[in-house]
Specification:
220 residues, 74% helix, elongated
Length: 220
C-alpha cells in the first residue's frame, strides 16, 4: 500500500494553519478596526444628526445609512489601503517579510491618516494619561495613544458638523411653531407641518450631494 503524504503549504513563509488563525483573529477585530481607525465613525454620527434634524424618523432606514457609510468609508480609505497593500501585504504574501515586519510596514500610512484628523490636545491627553515621554516626531507616537485620541477627535468633529446641519432645520421648526401659535392652531403638531418644508428644502438644495461632499472633503 502506497502512503499518501498531504502537505498544505501556506503563502509566503507562513504555514496555512497559522494563516487561518491570523485570518480568524483579524476578522474578529474587523468591527473594532472599522469603527475606531477609519472614517466610519464621523460619517455615521453626521448621518444620525441629519436624520434627527429632518425629523423623518426611520427614513432613510438605518440599513441604508450604514451601507452608505461603509461605501463612503471604502472610498475615503482607498488611498490608505493601497499604500498598506503595497508596503505590507504584497511583500508578506510573497514571503519577502515576516508578519511582524508587515505590521510595522503597514502601520505608518494608517497612522499618518489618523494623525491628520487628530487634535493635538487629544494626543497630549493620552500621552499624559499613559505617562509616555513626549516623542520628537508624530511618527514615534504609539498606536495605543493615536487610536483613542483619533476616536475622540472624530466624535468632536462629527458632533460639530451635526450641529451645523441642525441649524437650518431648527429655524424652520421655530418659524412653523410661531406661525401656528399666532394662528391659534394649538392642536396642530408643529413637527407634522414643518416636516414637508424641511424635506422640500433638503431636496431643493440637493442636500445629499452637499452633505456627502462635505464629509469627504473634511478628510482631505
Amino acid at each position: 500500500m502506497n502512503s499518501v503524504d498531504l502537505q498544505v503549504n501556506g503563502i509566503g513563509t507562513i504555514s496555512a494553519p497559522l494563516q487561518i488563525v491570523l485570518l480568524l483573529t483579524l476578522i474578529s477585530f474587523l468591527p473594532a478596526i472599522l469603527v475606531t481607525m477609519t472614517s466610519f465613525t464621523r460619517i455615521t454620527i453626521i448621518f444620525h444628526f441629519l436624520r434627527q434634524a429632518l425629523g423623518t424618523q426611520e427614513m432613510p432606514s438605518s440599513q441604508i445609512l450604514i451601507g452608505l457609510s461603509l461605501f463612503l468609508t471604502m472610498f475615503i480609505m482607498a488611498p490608505v489601503g493601497a499604500q498598506i497593500n503595497e508596503l505590507a501585504l504584497e511583500p508578506a504574501m510573497a514571503g519577502k517579510v515576516s508578519v511582524t515586519q508587515a505590521l510595522e510596514l503597514g502601520t505608518p500610512p494608517l497612522r499618518d491618516f489618523m494623525l491628520k484628523q487628530t487634535r493635538e490636545a487629544d494626543l497630549a491627553l493620552f500621552i499624559e494619561l499613559g505617562k509616555i515621554e513626549k516623542p520628537e516626531t508624530p511618527a514615534e507616537l504609539p498606536m495605543r495613544v493615536v487610536i483613542p485620541a483619533y476616536v475622540i477627535s472624530e466624535l468632536k468633529t462629527g458632533f460639530q458638523m451635526g450641529f451645523f446641519l441642525f441649524i437650518p432645520f431648527l429655524l424652520i421648526d421655530l418659524v412653523v411653531s410661531t406661525t401656528l401659535l399666532s394662528m391659534g392652531m394649538l392642536q396642530m403638531p408643529p413637527a407634522m407641518v414643518s416636516l414637508p418644508f424641511k424635506v422640500l428644502l433638503f431636496v431643493m438644495i440637493d442636500g445629499w450631494n452637499l452633505v456627502v461632499g462635505s464629509i469627504v472633503r473634511s478628510f482631505a
